[in-house]
Specification:
By secondary structure, the protein is α+β, with helices and mostly antiparallel strands. It contains 4 helices and 4 strands, in the order H-H-E-H-E-E-H-E.
Length: 157
């Protein structure tokens, strides 16, 4: 028994001495020098968005025009959802042909590709669009509340 214990102790010591020492850690990284964007709560854009339901990123033309693209809460119709990229792409192209007067988008939310149509400001508009989608045999379609993009006339003083 003593020989087995001695042999075990010798093997344990040999395995511990055979391990390599860890390389020194590089501690030169300083997170204070990172160029991070400001937090929305600190630059008051989040408060503006909560109060007005408008996103502060507006003018697509650099401010020369009084028309603005505004991101706000609205409604879309989700036509289809799948994890297959190629199927989602074919449904997306098909939806663009079937809804030529509506905005069609392909959204990727891991692991699903979602095909959505419309930029409806009211639920009633979205319900009408849903009825059209059901007529076009998108039987899994449903109305979803999400961010939409709306063109509005800006008020510059």
């Amino acid at each position: 028994m003593f020989r087995v214990f001695t042999l075990f102790l010798v093997l344990l010591m040999a395995s511990l001495s055979a391990q390599e020492s860890l390389p020194p850690q590089d501690e030169s990284f300083d997170p204070a020098i990172l160029k991070e964007p400001t937090l929305p709560i600190l630059d008051k854009t989040l408060i503006y968005e909560i109060i007005t339901d408008l996103s502060p990123t507006m003018s697509p033309s650099g401010g020369e025009d009084s028309l603005q693209i505004v991101a706000k809460s609205g409604w879309k119709v989700q036509l289809f959802s799948t994890s297959d990229f190629f199927l989602a792409d074919s449904i997306y192209q098909q939806a663009q042909q079937r809804f030529p007067d509506q905005a069609v988008e392909k959204v990727f939310d891991l692991p699903y590709y979602k095909i959505r149509v419309g930029n409806c400001q009211t639920r009633e508009e979205a319900e009408k669009l849903l009825a059209k989608a059901l007529e076009l045999r998108y039987f899994d379609a449903w109305v979803i509340r999400t961010r939409i993009k709306v063109v509005e006339r800006g008020s510059y003083y």
